[in-house]
Amino acid sequence: MLCQLIPLQTWIEQEIGQSVIKLTPFKVCFLSLKKVLFPILSNTRVKRGERELTFSDKLGLAFFTIILTFLVNILFKWLQNKFDFVVDTKKFKREHYYKQLNELYFEIYSIIVQSEFLRTFYWIEEFRSLKEVPFLEIQNKLKKYKSNLFTGETLEESEEIVESTITKFNKIGLVDHIIENKKYASQDLLKLAVGYRYVHKHYQNENYPQIQLERFQKKELEMIYKIVSIVVVEFNEKLKFCNMDYNKTEMKKGVMDNGIFEVEK
Questions:
Q1: CA dihedral in degrees (79, 84, 90, 92; nearest 10)?
Q2: Rounded CA separation 136/105 (Å)
Q3: pLDDT (tens digit, 9 = 90+) per residue, 138-186?
Q4: Which of 30, 55, 90 is the C-terminal boundary of a domain?
Q5: pLDDT (tens digit, 9 = 90+) per residue, 233-264?
């Protein structure tokens, strides 16, 4: 038999005139139909009103059945691998996004939420734009005085910052958390956080020349605005991919929806 002498792949390649490896399963199927089945059907003789196949036609049809089975199996396996790859990729991406949310984005989004609450509560947005004041933070300062018990004269004066859960939600706390959890941050967010940390150290240093100080202050506003915007967008994008509730407007504009904080005057 011909099928015992020639490997099936070689026979297919001889019939269609091309290498099977270089073709997609769909094209192999099409060329096989064109080269094998169509000639068989065209050689069918009509006798006494009935279709009759010659011996060579029957042999060819048998071979075609084998080929078709082979090609269907190839096509099925190809589609299965393609589907499994897409499913595995999507599963990995969803798990990674969920971990990013838990390890990083829920925390830094919460810090921005406090800033937006302060903006609404004190009606800051009515006087200054978001770009002018992209982030608001609170500081608690405690002043200490040492005085003479007899004269009441102040001998020493000092000031220290009192930390609380509220004061820790500040700009440097935001970028420090991003850097500490850098493996979960996007490239843009990490770049901005590292750059901002340097700018933050210098933008209030009055020992610098005025031109240099103004440059630091301008850069500080630009970078914290970008950080806030990227966090808002990426947070909602990851929520959406994980099939969780998200805000379409925030994802599109990069501005937190603070309507829930509106206070009556």
A1: -150
A2: 19
A3: 887 666 667 666 676 776 776 777 788 999 999 999 999 999 999 999 9
A4: 90
A5: 999 999 999 999 999 999 999 999 988 987 66
- Domain annotation covers residue 193: yes
CA distance 18 to 20: 6
Structure tokens that stand for 175 in this block: 């970028």
How far from each other are the two terminal CA atoms of the chain, in whole angstroms?
95
Q: What's the structural domain count of the chain? A: 2
**Global pTM value:** 0.66
